[in-house]
UniProtKB/TrEMBL annotation:
Domain Phytochrome chromophore attachment site span(s) in chain numbering: 11-191
Name the UniProt record assigns to this protein: Phytochrome A
Highest taxon of source: Eukaryota
PANTHER family registered for this protein in UniProt: OS08G0260000 PROTEIN, PHYTOCHROME 1
A Gene Ontology biological process term: regulation of DNA-templated transcription
Family assignment from sequence similarity: Belongs to the phytochrome family.
Organismal lineage: Eukaryota, Viridiplantae, Streptophyta, Embryophyta, Tracheophyta
Keyword tRNA processing: no
GO molecular function terms listed in the Swiss-Prot or TrEMBL record: photoreceptor activity
SMART domains on file: GAF
Keywords: Chromophore, Photoreceptor protein, Receptor, Sensory transduction, Transcription, Transcription regulation
Gene coding for it: PHYA
UniProt key word Ribosomal protein: no
Length: 335
């Protein structure tokens, strides 16, 4: 905990690497790794330490189905889960017939793991495991969480909702039992780690908000002094306002494009589509033009996927574009 507290702020990866190192040394497992959930619920190994001779998992992605929602719900209730030996036979538990309600073992460390998970462990050459949940405040690392919304929440003194940010996972190639005091220490370490993760996201949001406000001020000054062309021809420009790969301005029926954007002909098709299907709104924001129903989405190729469009007037618009999230991802289990 002292090592975590001594780390300088502003480096989340260093924080994650440090907690993985601490868990590796504390528990004595053959492998320790940090597993982060992405927005679409798939997971990625973002930090790892192993004993010599083990296959590395660092950088591998795993589909959301590997840890379904039911399992994530259990991690929110029981934040440390230990499997001593995946080959051990489970013991049956019989409930007294006099009990009026069924007992649940969701919060019990004695609950037997699912047979599918045991087979999954065996396929990974892992006989024993220790899994610790990292639970943070809802929305701390989301870009669309504004300062106003967070301030209103604080003023109303509403308790922040929690969510499962990721897992710290330990594997062992032989059976291994961790006594309760050590498991309790690991759970406390995860609580401290989660607090620091929250602080990192809060700092990142504050820096981002300051940059956005500064850019907004400069762009507004340009609009006051010049025609709207200044926000695409000068620096900073509209690409500095939103995290994007390209942007465009439609002004007086002409396009000014920056970065990766559709062609002018494709953009005119987008404008026609917006006028037909989204005329009543002030704009549109979508992660996928294809999912949003744009007929020409496939012709855009890999260069453009998501788009945000805002109307300045009835005929003038601003556009921001994003490419696909990743061109290539290493999936766990793929050969």
């Amino acid at each position: 905990i002292a090592r975590l507290q001594a780390l300088p702020s502003g480096n989340l990866q260093k924080l994650v690497d440090t907690v993985v190192q601490e868990v590796f040394e504390l528990t004595g497992y053959d492998r320790a790794m940090a597993y982060k959930f992405h927005d679409d619920d798939h997971g990625e190994v973002i930090s790892e330490i192993t004993k010599p001779g083990l296959e590395p998992y660092l950088g591998l992605h795993y589909p959301a189905t590997d840890i379904p929602q039911a399992a994530r719900f259990l991690f929110m209730k029981n934040k440390v889960r230990m499997i001593c030996d995946c080959h051990a036979k489970p013991m049956k538990v019989f409930q007294d017939g006099k009990l009026a309600l069924d007992l649940t073992l969701c919060g019990s460390t004695l609950r037997a793991p699912h047979s599918c998970h045991l087979q999954y462990m065996e396929n990974m050459d892992s006989i024993a495991s220790l899994v610790m949940a990292v639970v943070i405040n809802e929305g701390e690392d989301e870009d669309d969480s504004s300062a106003v919304e967070r301030q209103q929440q604080q003023q109303q003194q509403q308790p922040k909702r929690k969510r499962l940010w990721g897992l710290v996972v330990c594997h062992n190639t032989t059976p291994r039992f961790v006594p309760f005091p050590l498991r309790y220490a690991c759970e406390f370490l995860m609580q401290v780690f989660a607090i620091h993760v929250n602080k990192e996201f809060e700092l990142e949001n504050q820096i981002q908000e300051k940059n956005i406000l500064r850019t907004q001020t400069l762009l507004c000054d340009m609009l006051m002094r010049d025609a709207p062309l200044g926000i695409v021809t000068q620096s900073p420009n509209i690409m500095d306002l939103v995290k994007c790969d390209g942007a465009a301005l439609l002004y007086n029926n002409k396009f000014w494009r920056l970065g990766l954007t559709p062609t002018e002909a494709q953009m005119r098709d987008i404008v026609v589509w917006l006028a037909e299907y989204h005329m009543d709104s002030t704009g549109l924001s979508t992660d996928s033009l294809y999912d949003a129903g744009f007929p020409g989405a496939l012709s855009l190729g890999d260069a453009v996927c998501g788009m945000a469009a805002v109307r300045i007037t009835s005929k003038d618009m601003l556009f921001w574009f994003r490419t696909h999230t990743a061109a290539e991802v290493r999936w766990g289990g793929a050969k």
